[in-house]
Design a protein that fits this description.
Keywords: Cell membrane, Membrane, Transmembrane, Transmembrane helix, Transport. Belongs to the AzlC family. InterPro entries: Brnchd-chn_aa_trnsp_permease (IPR011606). The chain has 257 residues and is mainly α. It has 2 domains: 155 residues, no CATH class; 51 residues, no CATH class. It has 12 helices and no strands. α11 packs antiparallel against α12. The protein is globular, with a radius of gyration of 21 Å. It starts with 29 loop residues before the first helix and ends with a helix.
Length: 257
């Protein structure tokens, strides 16, 4: 366990009341922690600001009031699911279908929680926010940095900064959309383009192309049998294929052990 060097005790908080949690690998002051968090989240800002703006424009273009963009970004903060939520709400999708789609899309967060350093966060408020604000990007940042560079306050600041980027981007896009023509088209393709780029990047950088092939197969199955439940069917099929792939891989490794 590290020793506090600030002279304030290990539970001393910063200006926003975020404690420097015992057990953290570093115990710098609030300004140092804020500077580290700001530096680490620069890549997140480069993604969240334009994508948030696209979300704000999409939301307003679908006939919703502009203030729903920052409100949704603030209280939901689910990235891709927020894009999906716009289409699901405006299309009149049933509550059960929305709940199932939400569960399937965000099911991966269950695995994030297995290695998320929740023990570095103190108190129910900080831990609750840590769980709420755990996204793909913040998890990647936490996983990519060694434990000695993180403490409870830095983790919370990383999540707060990332959350702020998304809210600002959404608000900017929503306000900017009020000056755009009402008949603007193509914004709804933003999410499709995002996932297309991510899939291409995965295929380009990795030798294992099975996830990409599983995604294509799931889309074909959903197109044939999914009907109006295309997304739910595709995600469910993709999840089943991934689970099956995992079980086969584990069995093969056990057989060769």
């Amino acid at each position: 366990m590290s020793t506090d060097t600030t002279g304030r005790g290990s539970d001393a908080g910063g200006p926003i009341g975020v404690p420097n949690t015992p057990g953290a690998g570093t115990s710098g002051g609030f300004r140092e922690d804020a500077a580290v968090a700001a530096r680490l989240t620069v890549p997140v800002a480069m993604g969240y600001l334009p994508l948030g703006a696209a979300f704000g424009i999409l939301l307003v273009s679908q006939g919703l009031s502009w203030f729903w963009a920052p409100t949704t970004a603030l209280v939901v903060f689910a990235g891709s699911l927020e894009f999906l939520a716009v289409s699901m709400v405006t299309s009149g999708l049933g509550l059960a279908a929305i709940a199932m789609t939400t569960f399937l899309v965000n099911f991966r967060h269950v695995f994030y929680g297995l290695s998320f350093p929740l023990q570095l966060l103190a108190g129910p408020v900080q831990r609750g926010y840590g769980i709420f604000a755990l996204t793909d990007e913040t998890y990647s940042l936490l996983a990519a940095n060694p434990d000695e560079e993180l403490n409870g306050r830095r983790i919370t600041l990383i999540q707060l900064f990332s959350h702020g980027y998304w809210v600002v981007g959404s608000l900017t896009g929503a306000l900017a959309s009020t000056a755009l023509p009402d008949d603007i088209k193509g914004v709804e393709f933003a999410l499709t383009a995002l996932f297309t780029v991510l899939a291409w990047d995965h295929a380009r950088k990795r030798s294992n192309l099975r996830p990409v092939l599983y995604g294509l197969a799931s889309a074909v199955v959903a197109a044939v049998v999914g009907g109006e439940q295309f997304l739910t069917t595709a995600v469910a099929a993709f999840l089943l294929l991934l689970v099956g792939d995992y079980l086969i891989t584990v069995r093969a490794k056990s057989a060769h052990a």
